Amino acid sequence: MLERLRIVLARPIRGGNVGSVCRAMMNFGLSDLVLVAPACDPLDNEAQTFATRARPMLSRARVSPPLADAMRDCVATIATSGKAGFHRRRAVVSPREGAAWAVEMARRGPVAIAFGPEDRGLVEEEILEFDRVMEIPTSEEYAAMNLAAAVTVVSYELRQAWLAASGTMPITQPDPAAPDEQKRVMYEKLYAALERIGFFRRQQNPDHLKYALRRVFGRAGLTVKEVDVLIGMAQQITRLADGPRAETESDTRQKPPPTGEMRGVDGDF
C-alpha cells in the first residue's frame, strides 16, 4: 500500500532539499516522488550529495509541469500548508489524522500529498484544488519548517498509519474511487451551478464556502458513480437556473419532430 502514497514537490528551489526528501521517503518505505516544475536541477551535485543511498529514487523521480497532472490518477489529495487561515482552521487536519485518512484511501488508489516551494508554500488557488489540508503543529516562536523536515514528519506518520492498518484490508473490494481528474470536472460544474443560482453572491470571499465543500466531499471519499451523480445534479441545477425556456428547448432537442406516424417502434421515443 505504501507504493500508492505519492509525495509531490511543487516548484522546489534547492536540489539539496529534493535529495533530502528522497532520503526521508526511503527511510519510511515511500517510493513515489513527483516534482512539479522544479526551479532547481533535481540531479545536481547538491541533490546527489544529500540523497546519499537514496540516489536511485532521485533518478526515478518524475517531473510534471502542471500540478494537476501530478495528481490526475489520484483518488485523494492532501495539500500541506503552514499558513492555514482562520477561515480554514476547521478544515485543517494534523499529520496523524491526514496520514490515517491517506492510508485508508490508498486501498482504493493512489493518494497525493503535496508540498509547496521552500519560500512560500502552496498558494491559495492551489490549495483550493485539494480534498484536505494538512498542517504540522509547530511552535509559534518559529513555525517555518525546512521542506525536507516537513516531508520527514509526514512520511513518518504515513508509515505509522500503514503499520497500524496492516492486516485490516477488507475482503470485499469497495466501489472504484473517483480520480482527481474526474473530481476536478465535478467541482468546476458544481461551482458554476451554485454561482448561477446566486449561492456565493452575498459572500465576502466565495473561496471560504468552496473550502467547506471541498472538505465535505473530500471526507466522503466519493466513488466514480457518486461523482457522476453530482455532475448530473450540477448540470440540472444550471438548466433550471436558465429558466423554463431552457427546459423547453432541452426537451425539444430530446424529442423527434412530429413527422407523422412512426412505424416499427414500441413505446414513446
What CATH architecture of the largest domain do you see?
Answer: 3-Layer(aba) Sandwich
CATH superfamily of the largest domain: SPOUT methyltransferase, trefoil knot domain
CATH level-1 class of the largest domain: Alpha Beta
Number of domains: 2
Mean pLDDT: 86
Main beta sheet: 7 strands, parallel
Order of helices and strands: EHEHHEHEEHEHEHHHHH
What percent strand? 5-15%
Distance from N terminus to C terminus (CA atoms, Å) equals 49 Å
Radius of gyration: 23 Å
What is the share of helical residues? Answer: 40-55%
Low-confidence stretches: 258-269
Q: What spatial order of strands do you see in the largest sheet?
A: 3-2-1-6-4-7-5
Keywords:
269 residues; alpha/beta; Alpha/beta knot; 7-stranded parallel β-sheet; 11% strand; disordered C terminus
Give structural notes.
This protein is α/β, with parallel strands linked by helices and 269 residues long. The chain folds into two domains: 164 residues, 3-Layer(aba) Sandwich (Alpha/beta knot); 75 residues, no CATH class. It has eleven helices and seven strands. It has a seven-stranded parallel beta sheet. Helix 1 runs parallel beside helix 2. The C terminus is likely disordered.
